[in-house]
């Protein structure tokens, strides 16, 4: 979920195998940038009896745990098979690199060749899949606040999820290396550099998807990919990798609160102000009553019209700057004097602090309709966290551990990593002519498969990845990305808009329609 920046280095040549299989090295046949990954199974190659275990064996995750589950929901009962386990990835020399943990749910008593299977991951980079699993799509969920502030001491109670997607698709939640219980089994900086990069990360997750399909004999099933937040960068690239490198077709891509192009939020880009203005206006308007996207039509028109034109005139044009400052103040409710001082150009942190500074409060970043106290209201420097995100870390972590170790009976050693800041801090963000963006891959995957569908969901009050950024990006796609294939839906809520009951219910219906 954290929004961070990434770079391009490749784990090509790495392959995945069942954790119980030992790899056989394969001879290199192409350059690392183009070599096709391998998924070959080999015989056991254990150390001689009495020899101490290798470093990779010491770090190995336990064998997969498969359990039968029954879930009582309004109007129906779901019986399904749950598996918590891992898939091991190897480099082209056959050396183990990482164990990638996953949790899968497959409905019993159905024709699996025709039943969809959906692969889900969050973002960060450095975020586990717990948000999507325990907040939106999984069989069980916990309360994420629903637009109200939550506290870290909130009980992490797992309850049956009436909006689980298991009604119409099997589910596989993937935790990239460094998140959840996924871990490196190799040592050294090189392996981390390969995995902690745009292309290395994409290649690894695509390999896990292919290997899971082989392992569970689901290659014939309709396949869907779901990503949240930085999953907006991962998702299109993973689908493209599956289509062209792994030999796996995908019927649909679903993105929640995605970031599609880092350039909108960097440096001197004027788009960073354009894409966030409708969200800031929505936050101001919701204080007076419920707000929908249709209520923001005037703001969207202004943002991509006169606002952008006056921004382009620059601060050297004093009349244009005054127009911007006064209009932005009127739309956001922020003190006009402050808006003039900032030339109407509010960064996200500035808006969050200035919106209700008179009461010593700051807004959330993930959900700016949620407010909390500024711990240092008199400081000239901003020192505050996110009242809409930080309090979720404790209950989500506890619930994920309880689900894995309790209900699913899988007990890895080590700590569960819900949100690993070391991953984001180590990430290679990409520089030069190829910054981290996925709109190019969206064009490729939609052009390559005219039947592939794209659904994007956003929350109105999300300042981490504002919905208007996706709107502008989708508007630039060619005509073949027609409305019957590409759809944007926006709901009341923040980054995790599914924390609100009505938004979660509505989005489930949209996802089901895509899969039907």
Q: What is the 3D form?
A: globular
Q: What is the count of β-strands? A: 15
Q: How many helix segments? A: 15
Mean pLDDT: 87
**SSE succession:** EHEEEEHEEEEHHEHEHHHHHEEHHHEHEH
Helix content: 25-40%
Structural class: alpha/beta
- How far is the N terminus from the C terminus? 28 Å
Percentage of β-strand residues: 15-25%
Poorly predicted ranges (pLDDT <50, ≥5 residues)? Answer: 1-50
Main beta sheet, described?
Answer: 11 strands, mixed
What is the gyration radius calculated from CA atoms?
Answer: 23 Å
Polypeptide structure, described:
By secondary structure, the protein is of the alpha/beta class. Helices cover 33% and strands 17% of the residues. It has 15 helices and 15 strands. The chain has helices spanning 55-58, 130-137, 189-195, 198-215, 231-246, 271-286, 297-313, 318-332, 336-341, 348-354, 393-407, 421-426, 439-448, 467-475, 501-515, and strands at 15-18, 65-73, 76-90, 96-107, 117-121, 140-141, 159-160, 170-175, 183-184, 223-228, 252-256, 361-363, 371-373, 453-459, 486-491. The strands form 3 sheets. Strands 1, 2, 3, 4, 5, 8, 9, 10, 11, 14 and 15 form an 11-stranded mixed sheet that branches. Strands 6-7 form a two-stranded antiparallel ribbon. α5 packs parallel to α13 and α6 (271-286) packs across α14. The longest helix has 18 residues, at 198-215. The protein is globular, with a radius of gyration of 23 Å. It starts with 14 loop residues before the first strand and ends with a helix. The relative contact order is 0.16. Residues 1-50 have low confidence and may be disordered.
């Amino acid at each position: 979920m954290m929004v961070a920046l990434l770079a391009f280095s490749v784990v090509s040549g790495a392959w995945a195998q069942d954790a119980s299989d030992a790899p056989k090295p394969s001879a290199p046949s192409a350059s690392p940038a183009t070599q096709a990954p391998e998924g070959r199974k080999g015989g056991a190659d254990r150390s001689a009896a009495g020899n101490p275990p290798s470093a990779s064996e010491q770090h190995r995750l336990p064998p997969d745990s498969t359990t039968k589950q029954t879930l009582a929901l309004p109007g129906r009962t779901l019986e399904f098979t749950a598996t918590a386990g891992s898939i091991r990835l190897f480099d082209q020399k056959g050396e183990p690199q990482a164990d990638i943990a996953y949790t899968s749910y497959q409905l019993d008593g159905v024709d699996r060749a025709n039943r969809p299977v959906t692969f889900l991951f969050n973002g960060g980079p450095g975020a586990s899949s717990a948000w999507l699993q325990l907040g939106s799509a999984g069989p069980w969920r916990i309360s994420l606040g629903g637009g109200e502030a939550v506290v870290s001491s909130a009980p992490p109670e797992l309850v049956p999820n009436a909006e689980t997607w298991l009604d119409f698709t099997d589910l596989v939640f993937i935790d990239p290396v460094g998140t959840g219980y996924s871990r490196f089994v190799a040592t050294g900086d090189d392996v981390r550099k390969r995995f902690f990069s745009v292309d290395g990360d994409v290649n690894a997750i695509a390999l896990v998807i292919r290997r899971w399909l082989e392992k569970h004999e689901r290659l014939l099933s309709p396949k869907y990919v779901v990503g949240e937040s930085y999953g907006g960068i991962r998702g299109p690239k993973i689908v493209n990798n599956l289509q062209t490198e792994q030999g796996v077709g995908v019927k649909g891509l679903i993105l929640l609160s995605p970031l599609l192009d880092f350039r909108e939020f960097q440096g001197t880009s004027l788009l960073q102000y354009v894409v966030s203005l409708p969200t800031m206006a929505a936050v101001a308007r919701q204080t007076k009553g419920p707000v929908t996207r249709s209520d923001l039509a005037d703001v969207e028109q202004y943002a991509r019209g006169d606002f952008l034109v006056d921004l382009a005139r620059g601060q050297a044009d004093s009349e244009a700057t005054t127009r911007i400052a006064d209009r932005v103040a009127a739309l956001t409710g922020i003190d006009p004097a402050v808006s003039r001082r900032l030339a109407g150009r509010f960064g996200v942190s500035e808006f969050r602090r200035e919106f209700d500074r008179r009461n010593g409060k700051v807004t959330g970043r993930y959900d700016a309709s949620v407010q909390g106290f500024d711990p240092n209201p008199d400081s000239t420097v901003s020192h505050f966290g996110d009242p809409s995100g930080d309090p979720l870390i404790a209950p989500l972590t506890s619930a994920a551990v309880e689900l894995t170790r309790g209900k699913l009976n899988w007990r890895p050693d080590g700590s569960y990593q819900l949100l690993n800041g070391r991953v984001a801090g180590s990430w290679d963000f990409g520089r030069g002519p190829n910054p981290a963006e996925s709109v190019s891959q969206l064009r490729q995957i939609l052009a390559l498969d005219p039947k592939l569908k794209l659904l994007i969901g956003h929350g109105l009050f999300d300042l981490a990845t504002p919905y208007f950024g996706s709107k502008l990006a989708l508007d630039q796609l060619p005509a073949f990305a027609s409305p019957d294939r590409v759809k944007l839906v926006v709901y009341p809520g923040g980054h995790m808009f599914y924390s609100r009951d009505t938004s979660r219910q509505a989005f489930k219906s949209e996802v089901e329609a895509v899969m039907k």
